[in-house]
Amino acid sequence: MANSNRRSMMTLYSDPSCPFSHRTRIVIHEKNIAANIEDLIDGHWPEEVAAANPYGTSPILMDRDLTLYDANIIVNYFDERFLHPPLMPIEPASRAKARLMLHRIDKDWYSLWPVLTGTEKSKISKARKIIQEDLTVLAPLFEESAFFMSDEFSLLDCSLAPLLWRLPILGIKLPTNAKAVEAYAERIFTRESFKASLSDVERDMR
């Protein structure tokens, strides 16, 4: 999706299969941000992009003289620079609760990503069980509002959606008492910003 205006426009370098990159793409389309999205393939990173991130991870955002890495930093930058629609609550206590849940999503679930995509079967099975059980315990929260913990689409939804989209390829099947989670996921998956955010690789995941 590159074009000749790459250097004069905001450019997101995004791994087409990475859930963290996916999170940033959802925000771009939800806020209708004018940005180039360029695929990053392992082993074939442009030299300037590889040099910009000491951790060698995606996504990476280049916006003129500003370079950002880490999905959370990037999406917060988007939300603060492009104010409409807001993707975090305005009220401080609600915003703090949302940030706490974002922290939990990353620490409890996305921290398991290397294990889930690894080769050690015993560790994979344990990681699958953790996510399955946690989502089941939290299922009632998915019934309380139109979106997760909110009546408005937020960064929480942008963070959860890539994980929920990947549950089938991760071998995670939710039990019947977690149907609220699946119903929520289907609502998010039909959202135009989510559909637009999908790479060809991600479309093939389901």
From TrEMBL:
Residues 91-206 form the GST C-terminal domain. It holds the Pfam family GST_N_3. GO terms for cellular component: cytoplasm. Residues 8-86 form the GST N-terminal domain. Gene3D superfamilies: 1.20.1050.10, Glutaredoxin. InterPro entries: Glutathione-S-Trfase_C-like, Glutathione-S-Trfase_C_sf, Glutathione_S-Trfase, Glutathione_S-Trfase_N, GST_C, GST_Omega/HSP26, SspA_C, Thioredoxin-like_sf. This is GST N-terminal domain-containing protein.
